[in-house]
Design brief:
Elements: H1 22-40, H2 71-122, E1 149-155, E2 166-172, H3 177-185, H4 187-193, H5 215-231, E3 253-259, E4 271-278, E5 285-291, E6 300-305, E7 312-318, H6 327-350, H7 354-368, E8 374-378, E9 385-389, H8 423-427, H9 454-467, H10 471-484, E10 492-496
Parallel strand pairs: 3-9, 8-10
Antiparallel strand pairs: 1-2, 3-7, 4-5, 5-6, 6-7, 8-9
Helix pairs in contact: 1-2, 2-5, 2-10, 5-6, 6-9, 7-10
The structure holds zinc ion.
It binds a DNA duplex through residues 187-188, 271-277, 279-280, 286, 288, 290, 292, 300, 302, 382.
DNA sequence: CGACTTTGACCCGCGC
DNA sequence: GCGCGGGTCAAAGTCG
């Protein structure tokens, strides 16, 4: 059991947490201010500011500074106060809207959770919980070692037409150091030997192309699957039916967009470049890297600059590490897995509905990752991809984009950047349930605070995601994190479910700034 | 000398 | 079947 995921929250402990506690700090201050203001500004039309937040003002009276004896001063003071008051009201308003959204989201999540649990009970009772260590993801076929346990997950969307069910097998490789290697490294071989004979049907995934989830994903999947997965289904919307059932599995990828002059982002891992190609439509070449921290580590990443904005570096991660990672790298890994999980969950159910997924995701993310700019999930591309867009960092309003970038999607992830250990993040798993329709666009709050750091968001998100996919836990975590964190920049997540059906693997892409 | 990068060739899936 | 594009392999070169 060494799952990398759980591993310490080392999310790049380099920075401090940037999350702002919305409620704790901001709100409190606001409240205080309110009080003060109220007193003074009696004349104001001031609406009853009710922050839904329950910021109670009464007692506090900040009578402190007031008492100015001079009328003149009083006058000027009053103006100032009024101005402040307005500002505070504005802030309160924003806060309130946030709260409302959170509340809604919470409700929805609860409902979903509930449904999911029920489904699980009914539907799949049997999922084994595989334990997994780190997972590796194999691309399309999972190679199975003898010792692996396989778990099958089936998702059926209850809501959806039943055909959507997918079956996945996850092979949990407990002892597979090798497996991973094999899998990743040689795809080619697989074909040939894919069957070493031993396989029972399992070996070949049921699907022609379905892929077994890699171990890594397994983690995610496993956990999530047990909970979140099954559940994911959304309430029902019809799904577009996708050919998905047939679609081959693909790996989930996580990409990060960030502005960076440097050609590479340091994510705590060691990478070896194994190829470079000129991508069509993009003047800058795309570089392919493989993790060299461990022999068989299947993790790969692609790095390329944005065609439109060469300052934006897009890093896409795929796969999970099969070895322990340094703290700095942990975040990434977690992110990846988390992202994968998200994709999976999201894709599963909704592959069709962006909205829902989107909204849900958006909600969570945004809440959980205040700093991130936006996250996008898309199943459409060749592989399901989550993109974190850190290029807009500061002040962004939360937006949901349903962007479906042709190529992939983006979603804010935690960068490897070094950050301080976040408790939250690591601790709380954050999942996006696929289909929840939370509020569509989250609130946009733009807070004056510049301070955000994009990284924190990312971290948060990734951490959360990565951490455990338990739905419940995730939800709880998400909520808590949301509540706990203040949002600064906005983040948006969008999901575009196009049709890709299943996501076997996970990739994470980062773009550095 | 080992690890990494460079770079053209090769493989493979996909659309026409 | 062919061409295209994405991704990977692996020999050769580079660096410390
Ligand atoms: Zn690795």
């Amino acid at each position: 059991m060494d799952n990398p995921h759980p591993r310490e929250l080392t999310f790049l402990p380099s920075r401090d947490v940037k999350e702002v506690d919305f409620f704790s700090s901001s709100s409190s201050t606001a409240a205080d201010q309110d009080h003060t203001t109220h007193h003074h500004a009696s004349s104001f039309p001031h609406h009853p500011v009710n922050t839904g937040l329950n910021l109670t003002c009464e007692t506090t009276g900040i009578s402190t500074s007031k008492g100015s004896p001079n009328a003149d001063n009083t006058e000027s003071e009053r103006k100032m106060v009024e101005g402040e008051l307005r500002r505070l009201q504005e802030e309160n308003r924003k806060l309130r809207s946030m709260v409302d959204q959170i509340a809604k989201s919470y409700s929805q999540l609860q409902a979903q959770l509930f449904m999911a649990l029920q489904k699980q009970k009914l539907t799949h009772h049997h999922q084994n919980t595989g334990v997994k260590s780190n997972g590796m993801i194999s691309g399309e076929k999972a190679v199975e070692g003898d010792g692996r346990a396989k778990v099958e997950m089936k998702n059926n969307d209850a809501s959806v037409s039943g055909d959507e069910k997918r079956e996945r097998e996850v092979s949990a490789s407990n002892n597979n150091g090798n497996n991973a290697e094999e899998v990743m490294s040689k795809k080619h071989d697989e074909n040939d030997d894919d069957n070493e004979g031993d396989e029972d049907g399992l070996t070949k995934l049921h699907l022609g192309k379905q892929v077994a989830a890699s171990a890594t994903e397994e983690d995610v999947l496993e956990r999530s699957s047990s909970q979140s997965w099954g559940s994911c289904k959304t309430p029902n919307l019809e799904e577009p039916k996708l050919p998905s059932s047939d679609l081959p599995f693909r790996k989930a990828r996580v990409s990060v967009r960030a502005r960076s002059e440097a050609p590479l982002i340091s994510d705590g891992c060691q990478w070896r470049k194994y190829g470079q190609k000129m991508a069509k439509g993009n003047p800058s070449p795309r570089a392919y890297y493989r993790c060299t921290m461990a022999a068989g580590c299947p993790v790969r990443k692609q790095v390329q600059r944005c065609a439109e904005d060469s300052t934006v570096l897009i890093t896409t991660y795929e796969g999970n590490h099969n070895h322990p990672l340094p703290p700095a790298a942990t975040a990434m890994a977690n992110t990846t897995s988390a992202a994968a999980a998200m994709l999976l969950s999201g894709s599963t159910s909704s592959s069709s509905k962006e909205t829902l997924a989107t909204s849900a995701a958006g909600g969570y993310f945004s809440s959980s990752m205040p700093y991130t700019s936006m996250a996008t999930l898309s199943a459409s591309a060749p592989f399901p991809t989550i993109t974190l867009d850190l290029t807009h960092n500061h002040h962004n309003a939360l937006q949901l984009h349903r962007v479906v970038p042709p190529p992939g999607v983006t979603f804010p992830l935690p960068l490897h950047a070094v950050t301080p250990p976040h408790q939250l993040i690591a601790g709380h798993p954050f999942l996006i349930s696929n289909h929840q329709k939370l509020m569509p666009p989250l609130v946009h709050r733009q807070q004056p605070q510049p301070s955000n750091n994009s990284p924190s968001m990312v971290e948060t998100v990734s951490a959360a995601i990565a951490s455990d996919p338990n739905f419940t836990a995730a939800v709880a975590a998400a909520l808590s994190s949301i509540i706990g964190s203040s949002s600064n920049g906005g983040s948006a997540i969008s999901v575009s479910p196009n049709g890709s059906p299943q996501l076997p693997q996970s990739c994470t892409t980062y773009s550095t700034n």
